[in-house]
Specification:
The protein is an alpha/beta fold. The protein has nine helices and 13 strands. It has helices at residues 53-60, 83-92, 101-104, 111-121, 126-139, 155-167, 185-202, 272-277, 321-341; strands at 3-18, 23-38, 42-46, 68-73, 76-77, 94-97, 173-177, 205-209, 221-226, 229-236, 256-260, 284-288, 293-297. The strands form three sheets. The chain has a seven-stranded mixed beta sheet, sandwiched between helices. Strands 2-1-4-5 form a four-stranded antiparallel beta sheet, with helices on one face. A two-stranded antiparallel sheet has the order 12-13. The longest helix has 21 residues, at 321-341. The chain binds adenosine-5'-diphosphate and magnesium ion. Residues 14, 16, 27, 29, 47, 49-55, 314-316 line the site of adenosine-5'-diphosphate.
Length: 350
């Protein structure tokens, strides 16, 4: 099947003015990310805070541009689009659901009016807007709440309105960034079920970022992002879940398999836990045997107890504090010596 989304070697670098120890440091939020999603899929994206999940979603939603790499959505190359093309892409091709309920809705408009906004911007006739909005709010279970303002709705209900808003212009793709982040477990489950229903009944493709590893129950596969790259993929081994089937087996019986993702040039990211368990350092011996490829530790390249690489968990690059201070003192000393030589002794109170 033709992919709806293709990301190849996607890179996003933010130049931020303030970092932990530096000013003007660059943060590599995505470092060569590969991802393919086919039409009609519903996938989950998980990963530690700062791993690049929102960055990826913002790029796919046309809210941010990648620094390098390739990103195609429904045949459109997001890297090459003009600002104007990106504007219509955002309005027609994607629907967004954010974590903060307040970010999704206009507070002084009713649920029904909120859902109509994207259609009104597209000049859809008023009556048609109203009909479709009513229909969408029905799908998300809010028939009784059409005239309520966001403030008169519970958090879960507000997110259901937000889903209806995201669906308004019949987008190819729905992107949800931690849509259940502010909700309790039961309400979250209800949101996931509605998203699944939309995926089934309307054929929408969905990408849902979540903190909740339990999301694997509701989606086709879960992709783990680590340090700005897709790292592993968890797929359900047991047959597909039908949430409307009352006789289905309990969720606990579902089985999953976690696979390491191999990028286009053959790189894999091996989980820290595996490396630690086998004391594998910066080199590895790869052997091909009947079972597959075996990676073995190499003498002289055991794992150091101190983390060897200068990256935060969030993927940003930093200089260690002490060497930095040491460098500063050394430089200062050299500078003072130079000044002394030049007869500036009295000005050494720097
Ligand atoms: N606008 C920005 N300016 C500078 N750095 C940013 C910006 N947005 C995100 N980052 C950095 O990029 C990295 C990835 O962030 P993000 O995609 O928000 O992660 P996640 O959503 O997985 O928590 C982090 O190190 C974050 O600090
Ligand atoms: Mg985020």
């Amino acid at each position: 099947m033709e992919p709806l989304i293709t990301c190849e070697n996607l890179v996003k670098i933010y130049s931020s003015s303030i970092s932990r120890f530096h000013k003007g440091v660059e943060v590599v939020a995505l470092q060569g990310l590969d991802l393919t999603v086919v039409q009609g899929e519903m996938i989950g994206i998980v990963g530690e805070s700062g791993s690049g999940k929102s960055t990826l979603l913002n790029i796919l939603g046309g809210l941010d541009r990648p620094s390098a790499g390739k990103v195609l959505v429904a045949g459109a190359n997001l890297l090459e689009m003009s600002a104007e093309e990106l504007n219509s892409y955002r309005l027609e091709k994607v629907g967004f659901v954010w974590q903060q309920t307040t970010r999704n809705l206009v507070p002084y408009l009713s649920a029904l009016e909120n859902v109509q906004i994207p259609m009104r911007i597209q000049h859809v006739p008023e009556e048609q807007c109203r009909q479709r909005a009513t229909q969408l709010l029905d799908i998300t279970g809010l028939t009784e709440r059409l005239q309520h303002l966001p403030g008169q709705l519970s958090g879960g209900e507000q997110q259901r309105v937000a889903i209806a808003v995201a669906l308004a212009n019949q987008p190819d793709l729905i992107l949800a960034d931690e849509p259940t982040g502010e909700l309790d477990t039961i309400t979250s489950a209800r949101i996931y079920e509605i998203l699944r229903k939309i995926n089934r009944d309307l054929g929408a493709t969905l990408i849902i970022v979540s903190h909740d590893p339990g999301i694997s129950r509701y989606v086709d596969r879960v992709v783990l992002i680590r340090d700005g790259k897709t790292s592993t993929e968890t797929v359900r081994v047991t047959p597909e879940v039908d949430f409307h089937d009352k006789h289905r087996q309990p969720l606990e019986a579902d089985k999953y398999e976690e696979l390491l993702m191999l990028d286009s040039v053959g790189r894999v990211q091996i989980p820290q836990s595996m490396l630690e368990a086998l004391n594998i350092g910066s080199r590895v011996r790869a052997e091909v045997n009947q079972e597959g490829i075996t990676l073995k530790p190499v003498e002289g390249h055991v794992r150091s107890t101190v983390s060897g690489d200068n990256t935060f968990k969030d993927g940003s690059i930093y200089m260690e504090e002490e060497p930095l201070e040491e460098t500063r003192q050394t430089l200062l000393q050299k500078f003072k010596n130079l000044w002394r030589k030049e007869g500036n002794e009295n000005r050494l109170d720097i």
